Every structure is written in structure tokens, then in C-alpha cells.
Amino acid sequence: MASLKAAQQILITSSEGMGKTFLLNQVSDRLTSEGFMVCKIEKSSPKIMLTQMANILGVETKSLEGKSLTSDGLKAAVGQYLSVNPAFLLFDDAHLIQLDFRHWLKTMKELGVPLLLAATSPPRSDIFLNLPRIELQPLTDYAIREIMETAALAKGINLKPSIFAQLLERTGGNPMFAKRAIDEEFIGLTVEVSDATGLYFDILPFIGLVAIIFICLRFIGLGTNNTALYIFSGIGASVFMGFTIAMRSLPRENDRL
Amino acid sequence: MMTLTHLLVGSLATGIFLQTPQPEILLVGAIASMLPDVDISTSPTGRILSPISRFLEKRFAHRSATHSIVASGIVGVVSYGLWLKFPLIPLSFIHSLNIGYFSGWFLDCFTKSGVEMFYPLPLRCVCPKNRNLRFSTGSSQEYFLIAFLVAIAIWIFQVNSNGGLMTEFNRLIAAPSGVEELYNQKGGNNLIIANVEGVYASDRTPVKGEFEIIAANGNGFIVLRDNEIYKAGNDADANIITQRITGKVSKPAVVEIETINFLDEDIGKLSKYQGKEAYLSGSITVDDPESVILNPHPREYQAIALSGSTVNLNTAPIDQVIPLLSDQFLTGNLSVKQLTTNN
């Protein structure tokens, strides 16, 4: 809140399900309760979004002749209003907003209109580069466990701490996956892996490193005239290198569900 | 992974790293490999150490804090620290505890959910990357893995019973460097027997058999068989040119080395070694070199050489030296290497 009020424009990024929408709703409620004008807009076509904004702000959406304003007309009318009246613009799923609308938001930024954008892995371009960025970090195990306990309570299931410890394995600090794990437990699904992005790290390079250590040993064997060490480390290096290559050549996982 | 898989991997890793077939050490490694699963009360370790597992499972995700490099570090610091303070058990047990613990959680990298190896970083370390190819606990793939591990464990046990992986490997490639390594490692406390295949340098007739190693010499060994001494190796002065040479550890033996000074004295000082397995090295001056008559066998190692009035001894058997120099007055230093075997 303080950052938004101070910096005026902020971009919130994270992977899917980390709580951007929840955060936006909380900010919207707080600002509204403090008496600020807030336009919280869901992703839609530019004209619909502009019409929503105009309706919230009380900007006329029709011309003097009674015709509905075009997108450009709405942009001009909303822009003119925002240049003199303070209001916070909150956009969820901003990465899905069309490019020309994002350019208009950039114009709004230059006018000093308070903006809060939430986007999942947005491109490194236009408005996303202009705004100060806050990246939502994975929640702690403690916080995730609390979310799961609440979700389990809402489902009416009583889970043992050992089950929570196992479910925590696949949340990756992500509240959405925490709730999903409870749902899966509720319907009795046996799930062992998570869909959380960036949770898994392949240790294959370390196994390759063992092969390199064996290669170094081979040189030591060569230098000390130790034939056994020379041949043994050669075999060791071949085994670990072969394992690394074999693992690399395994079929890749399908990105689709 | 199942308990059986953990037990097998723990004992196998201990066997490989410590090169020992001792069942009690392997057992410690096997049990230690189950310790990381203390973070959940439903695991066998968790059920035994119930208060600890109940404490941990309320605070950490399964396969996180206890399955990490940090946890291994803590186990290492505590176990080695306690051992340094109270060395009540052999150090190899502490080694096996640490190896077992590490292998226990590292094995879980190959499961579908992986482990938080770099805890507190929230990264689940896995191998391979494709989740469909990783192990599920109790799956048919795991039973295949168990069968494979059992085969490897039997082989490693057998290898360790024969002196360890490197010894077995040296035996396989039959290179002098392997025997040298074995002699350097075990020669201080055991007799080392060399199994030599080669030819006599003098007439190129084949030779094959077991010889007792007395000493290392150049890139070869001074060896003994039927009271005859040879130099085996590929040096220019070798009596037996080796094609294959392997070593094996024989009876326990004590090696004692003593330096004896002579100042125009008879050989009486050496009489205490007579009849024992002792070898002399060094140069000594005699008063009557004409009466020193050497009768070397062309096939054998020339352990005694005469140069003017100086007799040069190089790992010469005491029972050959005493009759040769019994009538002489000696001046100089000799070192005596005595091998005493415990039968």
C-alpha cells in the first residue's frame, strides 16, 4: 500500500497462483475503504475495459449526439478525467491486455495516474519495463501449511501433520497448489509431483561433475605412474559421463497436461 | 523409496567408500540411510523416534530440511565432534553413519518428488528431469532397482572381502604399481605375497608362482621363494621379467629395522638374528677380502657384492652373510630388516 501510494505505479509479477489477484483485491478494498477512487478492471477487450472504467469514474460514454464513444474517444475522455481527478487503476492479468491498450496505460503513467498492474511472466517490453516491479516470492512452509489447514477445515477434512508434511512437498510455496493439494487429498487422488514452475532442479550437472573429478584423478594416476588409478578413474569417468549422457537423451516431459 | 531400498543403498555406499566387508559397519550405514526420513511420523524411523518426527513434521515439509546438505553437515559435525570428545567407538562407525545418512537422502533425488538438497532454498533436486521417469515408492521399477542393488551389493561384498575395489582392480590389471600400492599400504603389518608370471632374465625360461616380497627395489621388488632371492620387475637388473604381477595380503607380520655399527669387530653382533628372517643392507669393510668367496647363481639376485675390501649388501639374507663374513673383522654400518610373522 505504502509502495503504491509512494511510487504511484507498480507492477506485480509472479508465476501462476502466487496470489496476485488476492493481493489486488485486498489493495482495492483497502483503498476503497480509505475513500480513494479505485478502478479494478478485469481483462477484456479494450473498449469494454474503457467502458467499465468510464462507468466507475462517472465519465460520459456517449457523445452529445447520443452515440457511444469509440475506443479512442473513451481513451481521451477517461484520460482527461484522470488528469484532473485522482483515481487508482488496478489491472489483473495485465500480460493478457492488448498492446495498444498497454501503450495507453503508458500514457496514463506519464500523466502520473496511480497504476497497479498484476501480470504472470510478462514480456520485457513497453509498460512492463517502465514500472517498478515487485516479484511475489514463494510463501514459507509455515504460511502454506496455514493455508492448507484453512482449506482442509473448509472441506471438513481432518488431516494429520504427517499428511500436511507430505502435501507441502508439492506446493512450492504456491497458495494455489496448496489449495489444490487439499482438493486432491479430499477426493483421494494419489499425486506425487507438483506443477509448480521452478520447483524442480535437475542435479544432472553435479553427476557430470563427478565424471570431471574422475578425469582429474586420471591425470593424477598418469602423473604418479599409478596404472591402476589411471585405468580405474578412466572407467569411473566413462561410467558417470555415460550416465549423464544417457539421462540427457531420455525423452523430454510433455509441456501439456 | 522403500525401507529395503534405503537399507541396500546405505550399506552399499558404506561398502564402496569404506572398502570393508565388516557386517557391523555395513549395518550402521544401512540404518543411517533411514535416518533422513525422521521428518515424518509414518516412516519406520519416524515411528521409532516418534517425539522427534512429530516435532519435525509440524515444521518442515517431507524430504526438506533432513534431506539436505545442511542436515548432512550437522550430522557430520555432531558425530565427529562427539567422537573427538568421547572416542568410545571406532571411527569407521562414524564414517559409515555419515555415508549412510548422505546416501539415504541422496537416493530420494531419484523419486518423483525429489529432495530439498539445498535447504533452505525451496528447490526440489531431482534426476532425471522428466517426472514420469523418476521412481515412485513401491512401484515395479523400484523392485527392479532392488534386484540390481542386491546384485551390486553381493559383488561389492565379495570385492571388499578380497581386499577392496582397488586391490581387486590391481589384481585384474596385474600391474607392478598395484602391488607397490598394496605393499605400501599393508607391507608394514603383513607379509605380502606376489603372484608372478614372467620369464627368468638369464635364460628366458618361464616362471610362474608365488613369491614373498621382501622389499621394493627400483620399479620392482626383491622377492623370496625356497630361500632363493630374485628381483622381479621390468628394470634392467631384474632377474625375473614380469608379465603379470599381482599382490595379496598374507599373514600378519612385524617389520623391525635396526642399524648396527661395527668398528673392527667380528660379526657376533648379528648372531641374535641367525635363523630368523632378517635381511642386511649397507656397505662394510672387511680385513681379509681375499677370503670372501662369492658364488652367485646366475638366475638369482646379487644381494652381496665385493668391491676391493668393501662388501656391499643389498637386502642380503642374514643366513648367507654370517657364514661368508664369520672370519672377518668388520668396520661400517649395516641396517637389519627383520620380519617376524605371527602364525
What does this structure look like?
The complex is a heterodimer of chains A (257) and B (343). By secondary structure, chain A is of the alpha/beta class. Helices cover 54% and strands 10% of the residues of chain A. Chain A has a 5-stranded parallel β-sheet, sandwiched between helices. In chain A, helix 5 (99-110) links the parallel strand 3 and strand 4 (115-120). The longest helix of chain A has 22 residues, at 227-248. Chain B has 343 residues and is α+β, with helices and mostly antiparallel strands. Chain B is built from 10 helices and 10 strands. Chain B has helices spanning 3-18, 23-32, 44-48, 50-57, 69-85, 91-107, 140-161, 165-173, 176-186, 318-325, and strands at 124-126, 190-200, 206-217, 220-225, 228-233, 240-265, 278-286, 304-307, 310-317, 330-341. Chain B has a 5-stranded mixed β-barrel. In chain B, strand 2 and strand 3 (206-217) form a beta hairpin. The longest helix of chain B is centred in the middle third of the chain and has 22 residues, at 140-161. The radius of gyration of chain B is 29 Å and the shape is elongated. The two termini of chain B are 48 Å apart. The model of chain B has no long low-confidence stretch (mean pLDDT 90). Strand 6 of chain A pairs parallel with strand 1 of chain B.
- Give the CA-based shape of chain B: elongated
| Helical segment count of chain B | 10
Assembly state: heterodimer
Radius of gyration of chain B: 29 Å
Element order of chain A: H for helix, E for strand: HEHEHHEHEHEHHHEHH
**Sheet with the most strands of chain A?**
5 strands, parallel
Q: Largest inter-chain interface?
A: A-B, 37 and 44 residues
Please estimate the helix content of chain A: 40-55%
How many beta-strand segments of chain B? Answer: 10
Question: Taking all residues together, what is the mean pLDDT of chain B?
Answer: 90
How many distinct beta strands of chain A?
6
Strand content of chain B: 25-35%
Which residues of chain B form runs of ≥5 with pLDDT under 50? none
Provide a count of the helices of chain A: 11
